Hints:
By secondary structure, this protein is an alpha/beta fold. It has three domains: about 1-160, no CATH class; about 175-290, no CATH class; about 300-365, no CATH class. It contains 16 helices and five strands. It has helices spanning about 15-20, 60-65, 70-80, 85-105, 130-140, 165-170, 175-190, 200-205, 215-225, 230-240, 245-255, 260, 270-285, 305-320, 330-340, 340-365, and strands at about 35-40, 45, 110-115, 125-130, 150-155. It is globular and about 80 Å long.
Amino acid sequence: MNEDLKNEVIFQGDGESQIDGIIPDGSEKRRSRPPHVVSVPVNKIIPNHSQARFIIPPQIEEKFYKRQLNCFEAGREFLKIATSDPVLNKLTTELLRLGKSIEESGQILPVVGAWERSELGDLYFNLFLGTRRFWGVVLNSLQDKDGGMPGLYALEAGMTRTDDLSVLNIHQSSLSVIEQSRAVAGLIVNRLGIKKEEDESELDRLRRYFSKRRIPKKIWKEVKEVFGLDQNHARELLNYLNLPDIVLYFASTAAMTEEDLQELVGLDENEQVIEIKNIFMKRVVSSEESSIELPELVETRSEAEILTEAIRHWFDLSEERGSHKDFLDVAALLMEQIGDDHELEQFARRLINLARDIRVTKTRI
Length: 365
C-alpha cells in the first residue's frame, strides 16, 4: 500500500459491513438505501463539524463553515500562513504529499459521507470520514494550475443522523490526545442531547459538558466500551477542552502527549502556543523527522537580534539581485508586491529616517 496513504485507511473490505460494525446497534441509525461509491467534486464537499480531526486553523475554519470562503480560498489562506509557522508547515507538507499521492497513484479507499441540503437549499456532500484526504486533494489542486475540478470517491452511506460521528472517529488511526478528548466529549454531549446553538462553535458545544454535574453511569460505561478509557482517565482528557481554541488546535496539530500538555499549566494563551512550538521543534530536530526549515521563535531572541537580522536579510536580498548600489531590483519587487502608494511612501520615509538615525548615532558613540 502507498506509504503516504497508510494512515488514511478507515475501512477494509465491504463498506456496508464495516459501517454496521462501527455504529453500535440501537444507535438511532437509519438508512434510506444501501451504501454505494460515488464520485464527488471537492467544491461540493463540506467536512462535518462533529469530526474529531483538527486540520484547518480556527480563524480560517470559521470563515469556511460560514461560507465566507470556499475550500480553495481557505486552502490558499492555510498555505500562506503555514510558510512562516513550523507546525503548520509540517502539516501542509504532509497534506500536499497525500494529495499528490492520490493524484498520481489513485485513491485507495473511499471517504464516507452523505448528500444533504443546507439551510439555503443547496446540495452538498456531508463528509463524515476522510477530512485529511479532502484537504490534501484541495491543497494539491492549488499547485496544479492546469488541472480541472478535483474530486474524491466517496462511500455514500445514506445515513440521516450524524450523532455517532464520535464513535466513528475513534476508528481512525493516529488521533492525537486532543482529538481523543474531542471524540469522547462528542459521544457524551450527544448522549446528553446537547444540541448546537445558533452561532455556537462545535468546541463550545462540547464544553457545555462541564455544566452537567452528573453524567449517567451508562454513558461512562459506553465511553469505556468504545474508547477503552476508565472514568478518571476520560475526565482528565475532557479537562483539556478548557484550553483556548487556538491552543487546542496547535496542541493537536503538533501531536502533544499528555505529558507535554502538563507543561502548559500556569501559562497564558500566547505562552502556551509558544511552548507547544518549542516542544514540537525540539522533537523534530532531535529525531530528524523533517527537512523543513524551522524559523526561530520570536520569544527566544532579543529585539536587537530580530532587527539586525531583518536589515541584514534586506541587504543580502539586494546583493543577490545584483543591485546593492541602487536597490532598483529590490525596489521594483517591493512595489510589485505592495501596490499601495501610501504604504510605499511610508516605507521610503522610514528608510530615509533609518539612514539618518544610523549616521547620527554613529557620531555619538
